[in-house]
Amino acid sequence: MDADNYTQNVQNDVPPEVWEIIHEFLLGQANPKLDLRKPHLRPSVASSYPFILFMYSLLIVTGVALNVSVFIHIVRNKLQNDVTCSFVLNNVISDIVKCVVVLPITLYVLLINNWILGELLCSFLPMLQDIPMHTTTLTFLLMAWDRLRFIRHPTKARFPAFVCIIGTWLASVCLVLPYPIYIIYIDLGKYVPSLDGVGICLVNLADDMQEYMRGIFLIMYAAPLATISYLYVRVSRELQTQQSSLTVIKFETRREGRSRTDSHSTTTDFRSSRGDYDRSSQYSRSSYRDHENGRTRYENEEPDLDVAKEKRTQKYLVPMVTLYAIYLCPLMILRLARLVLPETYENNKNFDISYTMFVWVAFAPTCSTPVLYIVWQMNRSSKERLLGYFRFSNRKLRQSCETVITAAGTPAVPRAKCGQTDTIFLRPDDIKGGITQWGIPVSSEWNN
């Protein structure tokens, strides 16, 4: 059936004034000649949709490639046996679901004005969008909680990773179950047979729906990220305390070893050194108490804890959560704003552009998180080689090889040996008495 016959049949079923109202409501323009069974682009994104398609396609392809690479790396090297890597693996699976399932459907809904996806997707699309997002948030929360327990008590059993992963997905599903209650779908095909497959998908912004959205913001964004920040601050303090305790213990051990080998000195008691530490003006009584607590934990449990390794892990986990919180913030605020600011024909374009942009930003962690993990797993030589491609390491190398000139005009001793040296070409006028104008000593044979 061509467009003209379709339009004629529909106009026979629906009065013209009602048909214009339907077109105005669905497409924003009263044009009865348009076939509503076909997708029509939103007028607000008509001029920018090629750029939007490119950006979303780039995000999807990059996110899938990076997360699949991380997934293969973890499984191939059997890193999922570590609890932290298991949580990272769960986050990778969540990001793959976002890139493969959620983002393409969301992009389609953002660009197409009329709803032709049916009642099922109308009811369950908000659930599909929020389940992997809530799973990521809960995964970061459990990861931070587990790390604090492990850092404080390395000998205790850690969280069962598989049970926690299943729990994050089940909890996310339970949190989004109220969504279909507030979704309204009207099948126009029931009233106009020629409009079979065309529907209206709306969200009922009732008072209880607004309370539900505010609760989701608090329960699944504000409260978890505040808790994660608190837990990671505690983890950093614990690592710092144990590192300082390790330094003091090594110092005292070396001093005891020297006192035993020295026949003219007496054996140093641990309590005397602790007394000197307590009397030192550098530390307060409370800080000494914290030091002793950390020392006790180190002496009892430290053989199972690699402080340097855990500090390096902390160095990359904190940016993962920080970027996730920053990228997700605009979308969460816009969701709350839509509950207060009604969407009209005047501000419809602003809402569409803002929502399209904020959704892209909210899904950007699907690329940043695996990149941070890849850098985390790199060895030092690989990092230096990677930085060399961007000329960062070469710049540092040149800076370390340059001769530092003192205020008196004499060259300082180089701090590091360099594989290459820069050749300096001097003119005869620049050489005066064996010292150039840059303060570089020159052999006396050059002056002849």
UniProtKB/TrEMBL annotation:
GO biological process terms held by the UniProt record: neuropeptide signaling pathway
Localisation: Membrane
Cellular component annotations (GO), alphabetically ordered: plasma membrane
One Pfam family it belongs to: 7tm_1
Chain spans, region Disordered: 257-305
All copies of domain G-protein coupled receptors family 1 profile, residue ranges: 66-373
Primary localisation category: membrane
Parts of the chain that traverse the membrane: 51-75, 87-111, 131-148, 160-185, 212-233, 316-337, 357-376
Keyword Transferase: no
Compositionally biased intervals (Basic and acidic residues): 287-305
Keywords: G-protein coupled receptor, Membrane, Receptor, Transducer, Transmembrane, Transmembrane helix
Gene Ontology molecular-function annotations: neuropeptide receptor activity
Family: Belongs to the G-protein coupled receptor 1 family.
Protein name per its UniProtKB record: Orexin receptor type 2-like Protein
